[in-house]
Amino acid sequence: MCHGSYGFCGRLRADHTLVWALFFEESNPFTEIRVSGNTAAFHSTSGVSITVDIGDPLRFEGA
């Protein structure tokens, strides 16, 4: 799989201040987000998917 760009995902508060952000060097931009309960699934233009616990983003499932 060819990766041509960086991917960023993050969480904002209601007032748009940053709670956390993650940076990926090999994912391409994330263009789709699905939130279910306490998890968010981010999908990139190259097919990379990251599922993140929004309360503890360093604990994610898969790429």
Q: Short description, anyone?
A:
The chain is mainly β and 63 residues long.
How does this model look, in words?
The chain is mainly beta and 63 residues long. The protein has a domain at 28-63. The protein has no helices and six strands. The strands form two sheets. It has a four-stranded antiparallel β-sheet, with no helix packed on it. The protein is globular and about 30 Å long. The mean pLDDT is 83.
The CA-CA distance between the termini, in Å, is 12 Å
Order of helices and strands: EEEEEE
- Please give the count of helices: 0
Name the beta content range.
over 45%
Classify the helix fraction into a percent range: under 10%
C-alpha Rg (nearest Å):
11 Å
Number of strands: 6
**Quaternary assembly:** single chain
Estimate the mean pLDDT confidence: 83
Spatially, the strands of the biggest sheet line up as 3-4-5-6
Structural class of the secondary elements? mainly beta
What global shape is seen? globular
The poorly predicted ranges are none
Major sheet: 4 strands, antiparallel
Features:
mainly beta
SSE blueprint:
Elements: E1 7-12, E2 18-24, E3 30-36, E4 39-44, E5 49-53, E6 56-61
Antiparallel strand pairs: 1-2, 3-4, 4-5, 5-6
